[in-house]
Design brief:
- This protein is mainly β and 330 residues long.
- The protein has one helix and 21 strands.
- The chain is extended and about 80 Å long.
Length: 330
């Protein structure tokens, strides 16, 4: 099928036009399998009509071929798996591509980059949900993305009077513009396992996750590539022994490692524990309590350890006949 879509919007003196034509091939479900494939031919036309401070008309054109693939395997509630591959453009704004200088603050001058390219974000997703017996379930989520031609800020500080494309930057001026950088990518993985211990009236869940990011950026004029690694482990147990008493206990251990190509590395450990308890002492009296503990331990400087404790307790009384509830919190 083919679709032609045109969207127009006016924002002050800016005019935006987007034309999109889509070709797609869709398949019907055959047994437990479903596949959807599409290819989008997209043409973006940006035009700017500026009336102040002087009359000016300019703009840029962008063309994109964007594939899309989605695969699903459904087997009732016992096992479900889906895969997806998508691409989408990220267009620069007019502020990022304008060629004139903005010197409203003469000590902080900004300017766009007319040679700026559009970015393309490619995303892969996979998710699965599986029942392992009557009391166990497993969920898996994987996502990865790659951003081509990432649009990023680039600043320069002048220590002496300097002329840039006919504009004189005074000593002490900060000049900010934009540039494209390649190699921005990220990945996330999460595995969740849940089980029920019926004789003990307990529910257990465990979440293991790992996040990765490669992030190129400019710090002033210097290119820095940061690699971030974030593993974490979460454990939760909750109970429902009776209508009068239940509790939940949750622990989370996470680490962050950031390796920079030009600057100091940063790494630390986060630990958190929380406990909640609800207790119905009698039909008219209850006691609820919760406790939270958090720790941040920097590996480079263990003298800057941060810890926090919080304990909260509520004693309440319910007067059934009048419908009034009195709480005492400490």
């Amino acid at each position: 099928e083919a679709n032609l879509d045109r969207m127009t919007s006016d924002v002050h003196t800016y005019n935006y036009d987007t034309y999109s034509m889509q070709f797609s091939a869709n398949s019907q479900a055959v047994g437990p399998f479903t596949v959807n494939v599409s290819l989008i031919a997209r043409y973006d036309r940006q035009r700017r009509d500026v009336t102040m401070p002087q009359q000016k008309k300019d703009g840029l054109d962008y063309f994109s071929l964007l594939p899309s693939l989605n695969f699903m395997h459904l087997k009732g509630v016992a096992a479900n798996t889906s895969l997806g591959l998508y691409a989408s453009p990220v267009l620069p704004s007019f502020e990022q591509i304008r060629s004139d200088f903005d010197a409203a603050n003469p000590m902080y001058v900004t300017r766009g980059n007319p040679a700026l390219k559009k970015s393309t974000n490619c995303v892969f997703q996979m998710s699965g949900s599986y029942m392992l017996g009557r009391a166990n379930s497993l969920n898996v989520i994987v996502q990865a993305s790659y951003l081509d031609n990432k649009i990023t800020e680039k600043t320069r500080y002048f220590t002496e009077d300097t002329v840039v494309d006919g504009y004189e930057m005074a000593k002490g001026t900060t000049y900010m513009t934009y540039d494209n950088l390649d190699g921005s990518m990220s990945a996330q993985t999460k595995v969740m396992w849940n089980t029920r211990l019926r004789p003990l009236k307990l529910t257990l869940s465990t979440v293991v996750s790992y996040d990765f990011m490669r992030d190129p950026s400019y710090v002033e004029e210097r290119l820095n590539i940061a690699h971030r690694h974030n593993p974490s482990l979460t454990f939760n147990v909750s109970s429902n022994f009776s209508r009068r008493y239940d509790f939940s206990l949750k622990t989370r251990t996470a680490a962050s490692f950031v390796y920079n190509s030009r600057y100091s590395d940063v790494s630390y450990l986060d630990q958190g524990v929380s406990f909640n308890s609800r207790n119905k002492i009698t039909d008219w009296m209850f006691v609820n309590a919760e406790y939270h503990y958090s720790l941040r331990y920097p590996f480079q400087d263990n003298s800057n350890i941060l810890q926090d404790h919080m304990l909260n307790a509520i004693v309440g009384f319910r007067l059934k006949k009048s419908g009034v509830e009195l709480n005492l919190t400490c």
